[in-house]
Specification:
The chain is mostly helical. It has one domain. It is 75% helix and 0% strand. It is built from 16 helices and no strands. The model has no long low-confidence stretch (mean pLDDT 84).
């Protein structure tokens, strides 16, 4: 990292920290992530030289993964396992919702894709609408000749809309009617311990390193989460994660989301971006209804199931659940299982649908 790049990273972090203070003053939800996201995205679109450092983003994911894993006590683990059928339904729901969104995008933009090679337009719509990781969906889209710029842009728009709208909606509902808190899903009363925090750091770092070694998705988050979860499920509770580290992690994650919106982003097929935004709002509303149905069937708070089935990212939805005390382990389990299923199935499903279309 050269001096110029480092200077831009530092200035971006300073502006993000200032945005946090404004959000704290305004009492917005999850201020340590939303403030940095909003100010960085706005500055980036206006042409400011914002920058996010990959090592800082990885460290932020590591901290959040380690913190979320501490919620999975043996009792909570048993509860999550008993919800396997609901998690399976949520996976099917996510695949079906993404497929419907993709079919709608394809219909709306068929004329725009007319100049592309055969099948490229369908691949663009399909992978742009899948509710999975942006980098993985973009890579799959590239393999099938799709327009990767549109796919990457659609996932950025979807993620930011969900991250901005869901916390504000949850806070509004909580302030007006209150949201039930399931005390079974709250962390233990243990505090920061030394050298327990060191052992927790080392164990989760090893988990992240192993996931990186095997080139898994979101290795710093998933590796730390699985290591921390395994320890907690085994009854080992060395230490909690200090609040200052958790807040700093949210800040760098917010910055990493905001810098995606460079000035060129606004000029990337505005009609396509509008369709993606409109479709994302539709998916959110449908997911709220689905979450309500799951809440009725499981007896868990509706807010927890809505976060668990929302078409957002794992870390962002889990952070929302953590800050608002809305069942972190259930939200995390639903989001993780959905991501794994989508990454495993979305490619084969695309090929199967393509073969079926040819034989029809």
């Amino acid at each position: 990292m050269n001096f110029r790049h480092l200077t831009r990273v530092v200035l971006t972090l300073m502006s993000a920290l200032l945005a946090v203070q404004v959000c704290l003053w305004l009492h917005t939800p999850i201020p340590w992530m939303l403030g940095p996201l909003l100010v960085t995205a706005l500055a980036s679109v206006l042409g400011a030289p914002t920058r996010s450092a990959t090592p800082l983003r990885n460290a932020g994911q590591w901290v959040i993964g380690a913190a979320l894993g501490l919620y999975f006590t043996p009792q909570v683990g048993a509860l999550v396992v008993s919800l396997w059928w609901a998690i399976a339904l949520a996976v099917v729901w996510a695949l079906a919702l993404g497929a419907l969104f993709g079919a709608w995008l394809q219909r709306q933009h068929a004329a725009d894709f007319a100049h592309l090679p055969p099948g490229a337009g369908r691949a663009t719509s399909y992978f742009a609408s899948a509710i999975g990781g942006a980098s993985e969906m973009t890579l799959l889209a590239e393999r099938h000749g799709a327009r990767t710029d549109l796919v990457a842009a659609s996932h950025s728009v979807r993620l930011v809309i969900v991250v901005l709208s869901v916390p504000f909606a949850m806070q509004w509902v909580q302030s007006h009617w209150g949201l039930p808190v399931d005390t079974r899903l709250l962390p233990g009363a243990g505090g920061v311990q030394w050298p327990g925090l060191l052992w927790l750091s080392l164990a989760t770092a090893v988990g992240a390193w192993v996931m990186t070694l095997f080139k898994r998705s979101n290795p710093w988050f998933m590796g730390a989460l699985l290591a921390s979860m395994g320890l907690t499920l085994s009854g080992i509770e060395w230490s909690t994660v200090p609040t200052v580290l958790s807040n700093a992690a949210q800040l760098v994650i917010g910055v990493s989301l905001g810098v995606r919106f460079q000035r060129e982003f606004v000029h990337t097929a505005p009609r396509w971006l509008f369709s993606v935004a409109l479709g994302t709002v539709g998916m959110l509303l449908l997911s709220v209804g689905f979450g309500q149905c799951l809440a009725w069937a499981t007896g868990l708070p509706a807010a927890t199931l809505i976060l668990g089935t929302a078409p957002g990212g794992i870390a962002e939805m889990a952070i929302t659940a953590k800050v608002l005390k809305l069942g972190v382990p259930v939200v995390t389990a639903f989001q993780v299982c959905r991501l794994v299923a989508v990454l495993m199935l979305v490619g084969p499903l695309f090929q199967w649908l393509g073969r079926r279309k040819k034989t029809a």
